[in-house]
Amino acid sequence: MTQDKPRTRILPITVIDSPQPVPQEAHVHHGDPADGPRTLGQPAPCLLFVADTPISEAEIAREMQHHRAATPERSRADAARALVVRELLRREIARLGLAAAAEPVGRESAEEAGIRALLEREVENRVPSDDDCRRYYEQNPQRFRAPDRIRVRHILLAAAADDVDGRCNARTQAETLIAELKTQPHLFADFALRHSHCPSKDQGGELGWLQRGQTTPEFDRQVFRLRQGLAAFPVESRWGYHVVCVDALQPGAARDFEQVRTQISDYLELQVRQRELQQYLLSLQARYEVRGLDRIEAEAA
């Protein structure tokens, strides 16, 4: 009796600094040549080649819109690398005759199907063992904890972000309330009802248990650094200034290995496959000589 071949799991492998899986990344950015820069009748210069195939500056310019970066040079380099990868994969698919045999799945294009078939054939899909997963779990305990939680009350002294005088007054009022609450903490609910511009004033300023990411980012960053008790300074946010009291802190409990086994397995499989994919692309670059990419990358450094 023969065993069925294990079904290959499809993971979102990415290259060339993109969130897109390889097939989509290599296909999705084909554009209308008319969208490229005008050259007044002259052909766009070519400084980049994969074997005997030129990749013009016009093609790179069209591709740059899909690779946002801090500088135009970095965007150009990312676009050039994407086009090189696409051409390397196209050539290897043609050499191995995979295009005709690759059947598109779902909404895949023929090109995407060819790339998928190539990578399934050439890049080994290694599933990490249980020992691998457990070793990673034991070496990275801080990554596998439930979220920290805090229980918070606040009084919001509202002021628009562009109201300089209003924000100064709100901060001064918050400092005054903090000074009074240091000696009379039992007045917090009363102050919230009288002064707060948040609907929580009807519950004494109570926000309940919070996890990271549940509030405005700048408020979130500050309150999770506070110790238990009344904050000694106003907490600023886009809404104004907050008088904050942390009533309880609850560090996240460690998660059992069984709870995170699948998460670890997927992560390790993805990391291994990414490394093997990069090695495979380097081997293709050695087979089909790439000229000009190093210079473009150097200009972006």
UniProtKB/TrEMBL annotation:
Q: Give the reactions, separated by semicolons, that this protein catalyses.
A: [protein]-peptidylproline (omega=180) = [protein]-peptidylproline (omega=0)
Alphabetically sorted, this entry's keywords are:
Isomerase, Rotamase
Pfam family of the protein (one): Rotamase
State the Gene Ontology terms under molecular function: peptidyl-prolyl cis-trans isomerase activity
Annotated region (Disordered) at 18-42
Q: Which InterPro entries match?
A: PPIase_dom_sf, PPIase_PpiC, PrsA_foldase, Trigger_fact/SurA_dom_sf
Q: What EC number is given for this enzyme? A: 5.2.1.8
Biased region (Basic and acidic residues) positions are 26-35
Question: PpiC domain location, by residue?
Answer: 147-248
Family label: Belongs to the PpiC/parvulin rotamase family.
Q: Which PANTHER family match?
A: PEPTIDYL-PROLYL CIS-TRANS ISOMERASE HP_0175-RELATED, PEPTIDYLPROLYL ISOMERASE
Name assigned to this protein: peptidylprolyl isomerase
